[in-house]
């Protein structure tokens, strides 16, 4: 626990140092120096994220396969998977409603009175694959080696589920050696993650310093209304998740949040929920969730439980509509939100995934895609919030499902210390 507290302290210190250094460089350095600093300092962030991505594919495959095989019967796998999907859809709807409530109340786009562009605008976002056919075909891997090489989490999840169910059907006599081997692999990957996390504070310093040095603190003031409203929606969504978690977990939900603070901070400061995956997996197991449930539910959640992206999509789409004075009926808003929810499933790991979903969806509702350009400059600051709440949402969902299945121990760390 002492090491975890040290990591949190170092992350906060280096984050503040990044803000301070970025602000100083932006204010006093020559333009060439600012560009050179921003380009070169991000090398630390790139190294950290590459190290994390190096771990994710073998970790997801080994933990998910072992989890499914240990769950045993296909009926158990189907029951747990069904409960997980029901909660993921429910949490997506809840987060969409929170985003809609705040953006409708605050009206951050009103008053901009932008003219609708006559010509199509190129946002630079790749949206050609954003169709039902494209999504379904992309879900199924043609090669597990290719899926792992490209860190396609959803494809790895699909293959692992087939592999795990096939292994479980053979019975313990045949799959026991493979389960033992993959269990060792998962523990090795978690140990490697521990080493990689030593780099996290430096990576966080680099990421924050780079953005602030180029954008300056002023950009936050220019977009204060939008960013403020968006983070109010994020915090309200957190409270809703905690309230639902409290119903299932009682006071234990607060211990869970305390244990998840490190992965949430990592996701927030690096704008990557992927970077927090290994640590989230480890902390949920320490919290008392059955490793079988954690390794089964968490990877699926990373593809289907993007509550932060849902808050962002609902908030941003209505902001753009307000900026162009486009008034949508209740039916149009309902269809838009359902479309955004469906389009967002399974795009974890896609760069600027929430922006890609927006760019692919809003033109169908006569909302100019050019409005996305208003958000691109501050997308990093928005991505920080949605990445952090994605981690929290997946953590709470996994713990709730473990509790519902009767596979949650009470304060296992305390039991170990007493023993």
UniProtKB/TrEMBL annotation:
Keyword Ribosomal protein: no
One of the record's GO molecular function terms: symporter activity
GO biological processes: dicarboxylic acid transport
Compartment(s) where it occurs, according to its Swiss-Prot or TrEMBL record: Cell membrane
InterPro entries: Na-dicarboxylate_symporter, Na:dicarbo_symporter_sf
Keywords linked to the UniProt accession: Cell membrane, Membrane, Transmembrane, Transmembrane helix, Transport
Cellular component GO terms, alphabetical: plasma membrane
Transmembrane domains' residue ranges: 48-72, 84-105, 153-171, 192-212, 224-249, 296-320, 326-343, 355-378
Domain of life: Bacteria
Bilayer topology: Multi-pass membrane protein
Main localization, broad class: membrane
PANTHER family: PROTON/GLUTAMATE-ASPARTATE SYMPORTER, PROTON_GLUTAMATE-ASPARTATE SYMPORTER
Name by which UniProt lists this protein: C4-dicarboxylate ABC transporter
């Amino acid at each position: 626990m002492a090491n975890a507290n040290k990591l949190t302290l170092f992350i906060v210190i280096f984050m503040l140092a990044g803000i301070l250094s970025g602000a100083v460089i932006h204010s006093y350095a020559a333009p060439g120096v600012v560009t050179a600093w921003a380009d070169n300092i991000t090398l630390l962030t790139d190294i950290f994220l590459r190290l994390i991505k190096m771990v994710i594919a073998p970790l997801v495959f080994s933990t998910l396969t072992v989890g499914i095989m240990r769950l045993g019967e296909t009926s158990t796998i189907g029951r747990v998977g069904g409960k997980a999907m029901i909660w993921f859809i429910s949490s997506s709807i809840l987060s969409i409603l929170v985003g809609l409530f705040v953006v409708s109340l605050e009206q951050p786009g009103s008053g901009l009175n932008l003219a609708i562009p006559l010509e199509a605008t190129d946002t630079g976002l790749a949206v050609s694959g954003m169709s039902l056919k494209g999504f379904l075909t992309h879900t199924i891997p043609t090669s597990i080696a290719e899926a792992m090489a490209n860190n396609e989490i959803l494809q790895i999840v699909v293959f692992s589920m087939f592999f795990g169910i096939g292994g479980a059907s053979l019975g313990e006599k045949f799959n026991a050696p493979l389960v033992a081997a993959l269990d060792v692999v998962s523990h090795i990957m978690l140990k490697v993650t521990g080493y990689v996390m030593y780099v996290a504070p430096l990576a966080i310093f680099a990421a924050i310093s780079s953005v602030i040095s180029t954008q300056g603190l002023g950009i936050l003031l220019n977009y204060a209304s939008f960013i403020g409203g968006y983070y109010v929606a994020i915090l309200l969504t957190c409270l809703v998740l905690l309230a639902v978690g409290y119903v299932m977990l009682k006071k234990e939900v607060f211990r869970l949040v305390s244990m998840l603070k490190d992965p949430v901070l990592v996701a927030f400061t690096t704008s990557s929920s992927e970077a927090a995956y290994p640590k989230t997996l480890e902390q949920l197991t320490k919290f008392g969730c059955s490793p079988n449930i954690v390794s089964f539910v968490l990877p699926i959640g990373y593809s289907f439980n993007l509550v932060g992206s849902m808050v962002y999509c609902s908030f941003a789409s209505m902001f753009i509509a307000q900026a162009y004075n486009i008034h949508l009926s209740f039916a149009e808003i309902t269809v838009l939100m359902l479309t955004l929810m469906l389009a967002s499933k399974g795009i974890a790991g896609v760069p600027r995934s929430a922006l890609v979903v927006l760019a692919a969806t809003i033109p169908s509702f006569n909302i100019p895609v050019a409005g996305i350009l208003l958000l691109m400059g501050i997308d990093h600051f928005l991505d920080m919030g949605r990445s952090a709440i994605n981690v929290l949402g997946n953590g709470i969902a996994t713990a709730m499902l473990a509790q519902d299945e009767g596979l949650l121990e009470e304060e296992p760390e305390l039991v170990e210390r007493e023993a």
